[in-house]
C-alpha cells in the first residue's frame, strides 16, 4: 500500500465538493478555480480537474457559458445549477459531520488509560 | 537551428518547435487514451487544449516567439502526467442515478495483476476478470501446457497484450464486478430499465411542458412576465426530447456493443483453435526427424522438389497462421477495450512475413510442378525363346520379400527390401500386346519417369528396378516396380510391350487382368476381357480358340420359308413341311405324313 495512493484518494474524494464550493458565490472559469484549489494545496497538477468538471456538468450540477478573453482562447465560465446548489448544501452537512467525526477520532485521548 | 510547426490550439495560433510539437502531440494522445467516450472524452480534451493554449499564451511575449521544448515541459508539469487525469469512476458510482441524465456504465477491464503473480500476473488478472479463484486459471494453464505447449504461447500473447495494472484506478478497475452471466444479465436489465425510466420521464416531461405551455399561451397576452416562462418551457421540451433520443442511442449503442462482444468471442475462438491446430501440426512435422512418425516419410518421398519439409511447413504456418493471429487479435481488441497495441512495427513485420511466406510457397509450388515437366523413358529389349508353334503363357508374380506395407497411396507405397532398406514400391505397370511378322517373340520394357529436365527424368527412369522370368514357355512378369527412395516418387511406371509372331497362341492368366487395358485398342491386341482364353495372334486382332460358339437367332418369315426358334415351315407349290411343338407334318401331292402325339399317320394316294 503506497502512501501516495491513499493521499491521492483522500484528496480526490473531497475534490468535487471543493469545486462546487469554489463556485458557490460566483461563476468562475477553469483557471480561477485552479488558482483557488492550488493555493489551498488541494491540487498538485491541473489535469485532474478536467474530467471532474465534465462529470459534474454531465451530472447536471454545473452549467457553463462561453466568454471571450482578450488574452487567449474563449473561456468557459462554470456556475452551479439549482441541483448543484442542493447537492452542495447536502455535501456541506456531510462534510461538517465528517470533519467533526474525524476531529473527535483523531484528537480523542485513549479513554482506557484515563 | 530548429524547424518549427504552426499549430492551432483552441483557436489560437502558435509557432512551435518540431520536437516540442511531437512531445505535445504524444502527451495529448496519452491523455486521450486515459478516457473513454462515455466520459465525454472530446469535451475533456477540448478543455485541456484550451488550458494549454492559455498557459502557452502566458509564456509568449509576442507573436514572433516560438514555443520550445522547455515551455512544453513546463506546461506538462503544471497539467500533470496522463495517470493524474484518470478518475476512479467507482468512487462516484454509487451516486443516486436519478439526477443523472447519463449513467456511466463502466465494466471492469482485464489487467495483469503484478502484485499476485508467479510469472506475469496473467492468471490473477484473468481470475479478477472472471471473478473466480486464481488456482483454477493456473490449473487450466498447466493442462494447456501439456496440450502440446499451446498454453505457453497463449500465456505469452496475453502477457504482451494485456497491460499491467499500475495505478490505483487500474487496480480498482481490475477487481470490479466480475464478468459472469449474472452480471451480464444484470447489465442488460439495467440498460432496459434505464431506457424505460428515461422514456417515461421524458413522456411525463413532455406532457407537463405541453400543459404548461398551453396555460402560458392563455396567460401570455395579459402577463408579459410569463413570456420568459414560455421560453423556458419550450427549451424544456427540447431537452426532454433530447434525453429520450440520448437514451435511445444509449440502448442502441449497448446492443451494438453486446453484438460486438459476441463477435469478439467468436473471433478469439476461431483464431485460437486455428493457431493451436497449426502449432500442433508444425510441432508434429518438426518432430518427424527425431521420432520418425511412420507415413510422414511418404511426404518426403513425394517431395521431388527437394525443398526441406520443415521450411515448407514453417512457410505454411506463417501463411495460414498470421491471418488467424490477426483474427484472434481483432477479437481480443473488441473484447478487451484497454488492450495494448502490438505496435505498428510488429504489425508490419507480421504482414511482411506473411507476404514472404505466400510468395515462397508459390515458388516452392512452381518448383514442385516443374519436377514433372519432362517425362523420359528408358527402353530394354529382349527376345523370348519361343516359336510361333508354341503356346505362350503369361502370368504375374508378386514378391514375398517385401513385407510391412505401411501406407497405401494411389501412386506408391513404401516397403522394406531384404536388407531392411526403404524402397519405393509401385504397381503402375501396363501390359500391351502387339503382333509382329518376325518368327520370334520379343519383350520390350519401357521404364518411364518425370523430372525437371530430360536428364533427370532419364536417370530416374534408368533407376527403376523391374524383372521378369521366362521358362517352360511361361512368362512371369513382376506385378511391381521398385526404386530407391532417394530417387523420389516422380510418376515412375513401366510399360511392357509383347511383340508376338502372327499365328502364335497365347494364354493370359487371370492375374494379368488388372494390368491390361480395359478394351482392345490400337496399343494392345489383348484386353481384360480376353484373359483366361487361348488366343491366336493375327495381324491386327486375336482369335479366341476356346471360346464357346456364340448363339444366333434365326427369324425368317416369307411365304415359302418360315424359320423361328419354335418352328420350321416350308411351302412350295405342291409340297409343304411343318415342324413345330405339335409334331411333324409333311404333305406333297401324293403323300401326307403326320407325326404327333397321336402316333404316325401316313396317307398316300396310291
Describe this structure in words.
The complex is a heterodimer of chains A (114) and B (606). Chain A has 4 helices and 3 strands. Chain A is an alpha+beta fold. Chain A has one domain (3-113): Arc Repressor Mutant, subunit A (Orthogonal Bundle). A 3-stranded antiparallel β-sheet of chain A has the order 1-3-2. In chain A, a hairpin with a 7-residue loop joins strand 2 (62-67) and strand 3. The longest helix of chain A has 26 residues, at 82-107. Chain A is globular, with a radius of gyration of 17 Å. The mean pLDDT of chain A is 84. Chain B folds into 5 domains: 4-85, no CATH class; 114-246, no CATH class; 280-370, no CATH class; 374-544, no CATH class; 556-604. In chain B, 45% of the residues lie in helices and 20% in strands. In chain B, strands 17-18-19-20-21-22-23 form a 7-stranded antiparallel β-sheet, with no helix packed on it. Chain B has a 6-stranded mixed β-sheet with strand order 10-11-5-14-15-16, with no helix packed on it. In chain B, strands 4-9-13-8 form a 4-stranded mixed β-sheet, with helices on one face. In chain B, helix 13 runs antiparallel to helix 14. In chain B, 21% of the residues are buried. At the A-B interface, helix 1 and helix 3 of A face helix 2, helix 3 and helix 4 of B. Chain A: One of its GO terms (biological process) is regulation of DNA-templated transcription.
